[in-house]
Amino acid sequence: MLQQALENGVLTLTLNRPESLNAFTSELLDALADALKEAGKNEAVRAVVITGAGRGFSAGQDLKEFQGREPAFRQHLRHYNRVIERIATLDKPVIAAVNGVAAGAGLSLALACDLRVASSAAVFITAFSRIALVPDSGMTYTLPRIVGYAKAYELLTLSPKLSAEEALALGLVNRVFPEAAFAEKARAFAEEIAQGPTKSYALIKRLLKKSAAATLEEVLEYEAYMQELTGRSEDHKEGVQAFLEKRAPEFKGR
């Protein structure tokens, strides 16, 4: 249901329900939340990739889970919210490798990640309004912060299918890679991130979260505080030394 593989500092979490385009069940969501929690504790993990098996990234909620009964939405969404909150608070870069369709809560998951790379065959659909629901799993928080209010409202109400190139033009994804080479290119991208100063990346993530609801004065103060932390790090010392010696730095994430 959820496959895990750690290599070269990159933990890959693969949603493995290809027969349903990796649609979410409570069990899958809980497994993903637990894996993200463990990733935060494991010093060998320098970056996390979330991707899907088969043709899809995730088609969102598996509606068969509710067949024959009326869902208790607020209770069920706790499974999703645990995942989104774990990504938001994880002090390591989280990359969505969108290999196919990302729809509904599948798109919410991708948007919650720090970076998104997409296969040229990927398709993005907000989807909720198509079944007369409102967005959840943080989509109304992340989407307007990426594309702005008016475009977010359009995407959420009309729910068009976006190609990978259209998503790139809107800033929904950071890179688009050819379908045939997607797995290889996405891994190389993640490994490049993992080899960087991941301690600094973690604090950049905190700064960006803070800036979303802070005054300029508060951000300036928080930047100064964070700069004190990074200025004392091993990676900063290595970065300066590498610059002086005119060589590539070897960061350790410390």
TrEMBL record:
Tell me which domain of life the UniProt entry assigns to the organism this sequence originates from: Bacteria
Query: What is a GO molecular function of this protein?
Result: catalytic activity
Q: Which Pfam families match?
A: ECH_1 (PF00378)
The record's comment on protein family reads:
Belongs to the enoyl-CoA hydratase/isomerase family.
Question: PANTHER family from the entry?
Answer: EG:BACN32G11.4 PROTEIN, ENOYL-COA HYDRATASE
Q: What protein is this chain from?
A: Enoyl-CoA hydratase/isomerase
Organism per entry: Marinithermus hydrothermalis (strain DSM 14884 / JCM 11576 / T1)
